[in-house]
Design a protein that fits this description.
This protein has 182 residues and is mainly alpha-helical. It has one domain (11-177): Fumarate Reductase Cytochrome B subunit (Up-down Bundle), CATH 1.20.950. It has helices at 11-34, 46-71, 83-112, 136-169; strands at 118-120, 124-126. The termini are close together. It binds protoporphyrin IX containing FE (HEM). Protoporphyrin IX containing FE binds at residues 17, 20-21, 24-25, 69, 74, 89, 93, 96-97, 100, 155, 158-159, 162-163, 173-174, 177.
Amino acid sequence: MIKNSSKGYGWLTILIHWIFALAVFGLFGLGVYMVELSYYDPWYHDAPEIHKSIGMILIFLIAFRLIWRWFNPRPEALSSLSSMEKHASEWAHRGLYLIIVVTLLVGYVIPTAEGRAVSVFGWFEVPALFPTIDGMADIAGEIHEWMAWTLVILAVVHGLAALKHHFIDKDKTLVRMLRPEK
Ligand code: HEM
């Protein structure tokens, strides 16, 4: 089933969820690696190009994800969850979405701060939309790094919570994010 039902997630939500999980951890690792590269390293040019290109694609994907979520609400919380757990997971998910959006948009500001467009794997360009302000790239760089750390820490806690549901509580929380309800 492509759409979510009241019982479980549809395959499109599941697919996008795992694309983001992979992309967030992958881009974080690449980001930490690339800022340490010296000018003579063979990845000095390509690593940031890949990081920026994937980041730009994720901006479009998160916009689609949020529209999809708006028209296709999440399934009902499992009845085994306490009301505190239901609220905590709802707010953790909202927090994840918010931090993803801010991290991606601030990331976009870094290469476009001087008015240059960003190329996405040479396929197409995303123009610079914000006005140029002195020192903006540096400030955006700092914020991007802090937000990325916050996102990864929150995602790890979120992943651990999912594993706790699966292995300790033995409920269907993780299973329903792995395959659609039949
Ligand atoms: C960077 C990594 C990740 C991000 C950004 C992320 C983000 C999210 C978001 C935003 C939701 C809410 C979906 C919705 O209802 O719209 C969600 C749900 C979920 N995620 Fe993740 N996630 C990540 C990694 C993981 C990992 C590693 C696991 C498992 C080990 C996991 C397991 C789950 C499960 C089971 C749900 C469904 C929870 C429920 O139905 O209440 N996630 N995730």
